[in-house]
Design brief:
CATH topology of the largest domain: BirA Bifunctional Protein, domain 2
Number of strands: 16
Number of domains: 2
Largest sheet: 8 strands, mixed
CATH class of the largest domain: Alpha Beta
Radius of gyration: 28 Å
Number of helices: 15
Helix content: 25-40%
């Protein structure tokens, strides 16, 4: 018996309503703000991620799915969404368009990590990216979009955490102060943080181990090391958020998990008590990434979230989502000749845009009606010998059990009227 690989799962028909609901909200929101859809390959040159994200992060050091093709090119399954978007921006000359270019994506990403609730080795992300402007108003717009998206889903139990981690001019001084602070606690650090202290000090603040979190609580704050330009930018972001009526809290330990971030970073966290869950989503500025991938200096800001984690919270907060459409009609037939007539009728109905399911096999009428009810059909069309002789059908309303005989020529009109009733 084969099973889905560990850390992956099948999205069964009864779960699809949640996925359609979330994806529909994403598309509507992005259209509202002028973001266009972009789809990138499911695998990329592995150096795209190692160069963009850099070593010293769990994604590059532990989690990427890499392989060589038959010609020896080293490839990687898509590990996150932003780097491929930036690659596409450069490859297709989107920098020649009016800036900023606003793009959004929905698709799977792959990370080899320990599976847990809302976190899988194949998971699905959506994100939106605004590339080509350093305006702090754009930072606020992206944060507002994220908040409005969660509200549109019906989620309200969350908080917005905000910080600035500076730029390549002021960040080195902060990193030096951070290393000096942690040098007094090297024996107390977890094995991963001992490596981070040398390779990626900012990630020290993001460690989830209790012993390391205590050390992070007394660490220097990034905002105290910002250069004048970064200070002004961060203050402007906060002013715009205040003007938009967006409540946020400063979190001086917030750094995000990927190395390409600069200046503004933010995360949206669930407020539900008793959950050990990570952020619902997050993002920030990455003003150096386009240049690091071979382009000209190009500021950018974006946001991303995992769809599985969103659906988990929809269920946890008992938010009802619209059901997927059910068939307008089920055709029940009595006898072999009636099955042929049913096939012809089903074809005609579908040509007129009416969803219909035909009975199969030789079930009794009672069993066919049970099947129609289980499928959620609004009507059942019953065809037997007498109906074939009279060129009629019996139309049964499954909502109240009422039924009547009508001419076959009237069935399309009757079903369309019934669907809108």
């Amino acid at each position: 018996m084969y099973k889905a690989p560990r850390g992956t799962f099948d999205i069964l028909p009864q779960e699809q309503a949640y996925w359609k609901y979330v994806e529909g909200k994403v598309a509507f929101l992005c259209q509202l703000y002028g973001y266009q859809p972009l789809s990138t390959p499911i695998f990329e040159d592995s150096e795209l991620f190692t160069h963009a994200v850099a070593g010293g992060t769990d994604l590059v050091d532990k989690e990427m799915y890499t392989f060589e093709d038959r010609k020896g090119q080293k490839l990687a399954l898509r590990a996150e969404g932003t780097a491929p978007v930036c690659r596409a921006y450069l490859e297709h000359g989107l920098f020649n368009l009016a800036q900023p270019v606003k793009l959004y994506y929905i698709g799977p990403a792959f990370r080899y990590e320990r599976p847990q609730a809302g976190r899988y080795r194949q998971h699905h992300q959506f994100g939106f990216e605004a590339i080509g402007s350093a305006d702090p108003a754009l930072d606020a717009e992206v944060i507002e979009m994220a908040q409005r998206f969660f509200f549109s889903l019906g989620l309200s139990q969350f908080s917005i955490n905000l910080n600035s981690i500076g730029c390549k001019l002021c960040q080195p001084k902060y990193v030096e102060a951070l290393q000096e602070h942690y040098s007094d606690y090297t024996e107390q650090l977890c094995p991963d943080c001992k490596v981070r202290l040398v390779r990626n000090p900012l990630r020290l603040l993001d460690c989830k181990k209790a012993s390391c979190q205590k050390i992070a609580e007394t660490a220097p704050k990034t905002v105290n090391y910002l250069c004048p330009e970064c200070q002004a930018h961060f203050q402007s972001v906060q002013k715009y958020l205040g003007a938009l009526g967006i409540t946020f809290q400063l979190n001086h330990r917030l750094v995000r998990g990927l190395d390409y971030y600069t200046r503004t970073v933010f995360e949206i966290e669930p407020q539900e008590e008793g959950t050990q869950q990570s952020a619902l989503g997050g993002g920030g500025r990455y003003d150096n990434l386009i240049e690091e991938l071979g382009g000209k200096p190009t500021p950018a800001v974006g946001f991303a979230a995992g769809i599985e984690r969103l659906i988990l919270n929809l269920k946890r907060q008992k938010i009802a989502v619209p059901s997927l459409p059910t068939p307008a009609a089920f055709i029940a037939c009595l006898g072999e000749e009636a099955k042929i007539e049913a096939a012809k009728l089903a074809s005609a109905l579908r040509k007129n845009g009416i969803a219909v399911i035909e009975a199969t096999g030789d079930k009794s009428l009672k069993a066919q009606l049970r099947q129609a009810n289980a499928l959620g059909a609004i009507y059942t069309i019953i065809i037997g010998k007498q109906e074939m002789e009279n060129r009629t059908i019996i139309l049964r309303d499954m909502r109240n059990g009422e039924q009547k005989a009508i001419p076959q020529t009237e069935i399309i009109t009757a079903l369309k009227q019934g669907e809108t009733a």
